[in-house]
Write a structure and sequence with these properties.
alpha+beta, OB fold (Dihydrolipoamide Acetyltransferase, E2P), six-stranded mixed β-sheet, five-stranded antiparallel β-sheet, ABC-type transporter activity, transport
Length: about 375
């Protein structure tokens, strides 16, 4: 199927703010595109408009040269003629039908011959590795197994586009991990276009080829997962994508803000007048005594050390001076979080020296937009 294109699409329910505003989005053919954002950001509404379950109040939706929905032209193609399969958050399985009969349901509606139906059901169940449960009923299966049946039912009708509305949110952590791997394998094998709605950034980062970040009905950024993480388009994306989230430091009168301003004045004087805030990823902050001359170095008080097994998350608060023996942080700025993949010997209340590479500073202007930067010039020791 050609690209799915949404042009100036808006959706309003008549009261309150619009669910989606002037959305321009292209879902490439064969991509695994995640619509990512917090609750109420418009991602499910967008998915339902693509499926034909919701009608936009403005704009157009097309696949290649075929218009599926256009307010201005008065065109609307009903859901059953869009060649798309939709999997909901709840499994929506018929409890009185066996797994095989559930998967077969859509094929019966299409009046497919019995022999061909049986073969299609077998292929779909095998693809989702649930063929052993063909004669069981949904109540006899776990949540993850029921979700596999729900996906197999969609695969059986062979849709050109698979639309998934938070299908993993009802599963426990282990099952979610298994289903993420299953969906990624499915996409690699079938090459189907998949549009996946989620508020879980980990799902988006691990599965998607493209991530569309939405907030309050407005598209914030569309890019590959690591591009979204490494080069967030604005403060919202930087703060939303990442766990722990990006540390954001206002260039105010706190020590951390003053120190960052001094650092920028040394390395990026031409950009300093435009900078309102600086972002730093937790893994970019290192506890170290020595490093390159152009590092931002600050003394901090340790608030907590949180081991996760594979890493340590440490909260620190910049102190008011460079004296490690200072009794308490004063006007040091906001609490910052760092992530270390090596053992952290510091304990609560300890004083440490932290370093951040100049290349790891994300700059944002007054409107929250990212300020493009070139590589930092070398600074003599």
């Amino acid at each position: 199927m050609p690209d799915i294109t949404l042009t100036d699409v808006s959706k309003s329910y008549g009261t309150g703010p619009a669910a989606v505003t002037d959305l321009n989005l292209t879902v490439p053919d064969g991509s695994f595109t995640c619509l990512l954002g917090p609750s109420g950001c418009g991602k499910t509404t967008t998915l339902r408009m693509i499926a034909g379950l919701e009608h936009p109040t403005a704009g157009a939706i097309s696949v290649g040269g075929r218009v599926l929905d256009s307010v201005e032209r008065g065109v609307f193609v009903p859901p059953e003629r869009r060649e798309m399969g939709l999997v909901f958050q709840n499994y929506a399985l018929w409890p009185h039908l066996t797994v095989a009969r559930n998967v077969e349901f859509g094929l019966r509606v299409r009046r497919m011959p019995a022999r061909k139906r049986a073969e299609r059901v077998r292929q779909a169940l095998t693809a989702m590795q649930i063929d052993w449960a063909a004669d069981r009923y949904p109540a006899q299966l776990s949540g993850g197994q029921q979700q596999r049946v729900s996906l197999a039912r969609m695969l059986a009708v062979d849709p050109k586009v698979l639309l998934l509305d938070e299908p993993l949110s009802n599963l426990d952590a282990q099952l979610r991990l298994e289903m993420r791997a299953e969906l990624k394998r499915l996409h690699a094998e079938t090459g189907q276009t998949i549009v996946f709605v989620t508020h879980d950034q980990l799902e988006a980062m691990t599965m998607a080829t493209h991530v569309a970040v939405l907030n309050k009905g407005v598209l914030q950024q569309l890019a590959a997962p690591m591009e979204v993480y490494r080069r967030p388009a604005n403060r919202f994306v930087g703060g939303f994508v990442g766990s722990p989230p990006m540390n954001l430091i206002e260039l105010g009168d706190t020590r951390s803000g003053t120190e960052v301003r001094r650092q920028l004045d040394r390395l990026r004087p031409e950009l300093l007048p435009r900078v309102a805030a600086v972002g730093v990823r937790p893994e970019a902050i290192r506890i170290a005594e020595s490093g390159p001359a152009d590092d931002w170095v600050f003394e901090a008080s340790v608030g907590a050390v949180l081991p996760t097994g594979s890493s340590w998350t440490v909260s620190v608060t910049p102190t008011s001076g460079t004296d490690p023996s200072a009794s308490a942080p004063v006007d040091g700025g906001p609490e910052l979080y760092l992530v270390s993949y090596q053992d952290v010997a510091a304990t609560t209340g300890a004083r440490v020296r932290c370093r951040v590479s100049a290349d790891d500073l994300h700059l944002f202007d007054d409107d929250g937009a990212r300020i493009a930067t070139a590589p930092a010039p070398a600074v003599a020791p």
